[in-house]
Amino acid sequence: MFSKFISLFQDRCPECDQKLVSHYDQMSLTKHCPDHHYKEETYNHLGVTIVYKSHEQGN
Question: For residues 15 and 33, is the Cβ–Cβ distance under 8 A?
């Protein structure tokens, strides 16, 4: 039950639902999917968030 509650606060990839990997430095917070479907960069001092999504095309 508690683990289900904690999972509500974890950032997940909208494509594959894997937990996002986070990295923080003085300039930004970066979160990305281990399979490179999704990447989010947040620059708090600028008030800017940039989101990258992969757009794979099937044949």
Answer: yes
Beta strands across the sheet bearing 21-24: 21-24, 29-32, 38-43, 48-53
Q: Tokens at residue 21, please?
A: 């990997």
What is the Cα–Cα distance from 41 to 50, expressed in whole angstroms?
5
Q: Count the alpha carbons within 13 Å of 7 in the hemisphere toward its beta carbon.
A: 8
How is residue 41 written in tokens?
């960069």
For residue 40, list its beta bridge partners. 31, 51
Total-model pTM: 0.71
pLDDT tens for the 59 residues of the chain, in order: 555 555 566 788 988 989 999 999 999 999 999 999 999 999 999 999 999 988 765 44
